[in-house]
Structures are given as C-alpha cells and as structure tokens.
Task: structure prediction
Amino acid sequence: MKTAPKVALVCDWLTSVGGGEKVLLAFHEMFKDAPIYTSKYNKKKIDWFKDADVRTGWLQIFPTCLRRLVGPLRQRYFKHLDLSEYDIVISVTGAEAKFVQAKNGVHICYCHVPTQYYWGMYDDYVKNPGFGILNPVVRFFFKLMVKPLRKADYKAAQKPDYYLTISEHAKAQIKKYYGRESTIIAPGVEVDAFKTAFEKNERVEDYFITTSRQVNWKRLDLAVKACQKTGNRLLLIGTGPEHQKLAKIAGGSENIKFLPTMRKEKLAKYLAAAKGYLFPSLEPFGIAPVEALATGCPVIAFGEGGALDYIKDKENGLLFKEQTVDSLASAINKFESLKFDRNKISRSADGFAMERFNKEAADFIKHAGKALK
Result:
C-alpha cells in the first residue's frame, strides 16, 4: 500500500494576525499532522495554531521588535533547516522562508510577493525603516547590506520546484525580480461567515471603516487625514506599531475612532454596517477588503496591486489613482454621489471562498506530489 507523502509547512514568522497567517492556517487545516517550521512564534499574539506542532530554533530568542533587523540571520536559519525527511515542503512566504531546501522531496513556494524590503518596496523602506530615532542608523547599514542580501534572496528564489502566488500583481513581481513563472491561487476568504452578517444587517450607518494591521506601509495615515479633510467618520479596527502615530494624527478628533482587533463575528457586523471600506495600501492581494465585500460593503481602494483582481470600479467599489491624501479624499467625495447594489457587492466575493482555495491548492499539490524526486 502506498503511504501518504510526508508534508512540512514553513513560514517566515508567526508573531501577529494577518493575511499570510490565514493562508498558512488553510494549509495547516489541509495537513493537520504537518509540523510548522518558523523563525519566531508568539503564542500570545496569534492563537490560531494551538493544535499545531510549531517548531522554532535559535532565532526564537530575539525579540519580535528586531524582526526586520535579522533578515540575514533568517536567511541562514532557513537555509540550514534539515527537511530531508519530508516528501513535500510548502513554504508560505513573503521573505526568507523560501530559503528552505527539500533535498529529498518537492518544494512548493506559496509566495505572497518577492521580499519587499529588498525589491518592490525598497525605496519606501529606506525612507522609513520604522525604527523611529534609530532610522538613520538602520538606513545606513541597510543600504550597505542590500546588494548581497538581494543576491542571496535571488539565488534562493531559484530553488523551489513550483511557485504559487496570490494575484496578477504578485505574479508579475515574481517574474520581474526572480525570473520565475508562478500559478495564481488567490487566498481563501471565509466568505460565508461574512455574508451572514450582511444577511442579518438591518441598516447602513454613516461611517467608513478599515481593518488593516497598523503598520507604516499600509498607509492608514492617508485614511485618517482624508477623513479629516472630508469630515467623514472613520473607524479603524486593529493594532500595530503605527497605532500611536495614527492616534496622534487623529488628534482626538471625534470623527476618528479606534477599536482593537476582534473576533470575525463582531468584525463582520461592523463591516456590514459601514457605508464603505478604505484600502489605501499597495498590496499583492488583501484579504480584509474581500471580507468587506462579502458583507456588502463597497471598497475604496488604491488602483494598483492585488486590488485590481477583485475591485470593479463603480460596481463593487471605487479606485483612486494616487497614494495621496487629496486623491483619496477626492474618491471619498465621489463615492458619496454613487449608488451601489450591496447584494451584488456581496456576490462579488464568492469567487474567493475558502472552498475554492482548498480545491485548487489540493489539486496542485497532488499534481506536484506525483513528480517526487
């Protein structure tokens, strides 16, 4: 009798809740017995993997706040992991987890996007590394190190046997920076759970909403400033290192409100009642806006990146052209004059349901497994 292939899962780190972690969770639910290898695990910040065999190594001793400084160490850590006992290795990564090697098996890399601080968002990272008063020091050393780090990242990117990715934008980035072809399997979204909130919602209230992690590259500052400019109410749900900065920008304004991260049932109610979702960041996909669509909430999104795969201008949302306060504020004002069919908006999320992801991913892995080395 042929035995099932032995599977290992790998991810960059597990220190917060986000879209990448949701993808990893989907793979974990597909392969319950597969151990998860990662560089750093914080059980208090993410409790989704209590039933999983999560394995860390010597990088676990470093504080989470130093995560962006230890990229070279993560390269070394993942490169030297011994995964020779596994038939299939699935890395879920936007950074260094792709460095792992499946010496006796097949490596499938589910790549969100090439490592952004080396490639596509290098200029943004150099402008604001996110270390406050230490930014000049970090910027200086990062500029010195980036060439060898890019070289190592590119070399590692040639090792996986197969690439999966999340959007047309990410596919183009992988081709541009790594010279690799990839297959798009968009992340699964718990569409049905969010649709339930839409079906139960009785009224749309007069506020915009965003539910992104509060990190600098999400550009939530644009959402806050744009709503201050237009006078609209804004509800920001979530936490992150940029929280204090965003609160300072809000300046105690009565129309800007902050709430902490919450369970999806409660989150879905807020989304279903919002008149619009603001998505000002350039992202390779964006699970949160699709969750908003499932609740019937139209999305105002920056018109580049993964959002183009699911936002249809003036049908289920509105696209704005420039990542500026004025461009977003203009879109908000335009949005106010438009009418949207919230039933149609909710249906536009159906193609991203979790069941679709599970089937497409399982079929791909089954095909790849037949080519075991």
Notes: Residues 135-157 form the longest helix (23 residues). The two ends are 19 Å apart (CA to CA). The chain has two domains: 7-188+354-369, 191-350. The domain at 191-350 is CATH 3.40.50.2000 (Rossmann fold).
